[in-house]
Amino acid sequence: GMPRDWNLGTYDEVEVVRTCTDICVVSNVLLLKALYPALSIKVHANLCAGLSEEKHLAALEVMRSCQVEVV
């Protein structure tokens, strides 16, 4: 998870990599988007993995639909 003392409001962009795409990554990315709507968030799809390829791809699509850049 994210340390509670991070002040991400001082950053312009955050890049995210991790497992599991469909649990940890998507939940933390959507939380970041809600807390810091102006923050540019980039998820590196090839540096993430889900419980299955189908769930991985579905989570990436959810993040794309929430204005997260998936590369």
Descriptive overview:
- The chain is 39% helix and 27% strand.
- It is an alpha/beta fold and 71 residues long.
- Strands 1-2-3 form a three-stranded parallel sheet, covered by helices on one side.
- The chain is elongated and about 35 Å long.
- The mean pLDDT is 90.
Characteristic key phrases:
71 residues; alpha/beta; three-stranded parallel sheet
Write a brief caption for the model.
The chain has about 70 residues and is an alpha/beta fold. It has helices spanning about 20-35, 55-65, and strands at about 15-20, 40-50, 70. β1, α1 and β2 form a beta-alpha-beta unit.
Topology:
Blueprint: E1 13-19, H1 21-35, E2 40-49, H2 53-65, E3 69-70
Parallel strand pairs: 1-2, 2-3
Helix pairs in contact: 1-2
Specify the biggest β-sheet.
Answer: 3 strands, parallel
Number of strands: 3
Estimated structural class: alpha/beta
Number of separate helices: 2
Distance between the termini: 22 Å
Low-confidence stretches: none
Written as H for each helix and E for each strand, in order along the chain, the element string is EHEHE
Mean pLDDT: 90
The helix content is 25-40%
- Provide the β-strand percentage band: 25-35%
Bulk shape? elongated
C-alpha-based Rg, rounded: 11 Å
Strand order within the widest beta sheet: 1-2-3
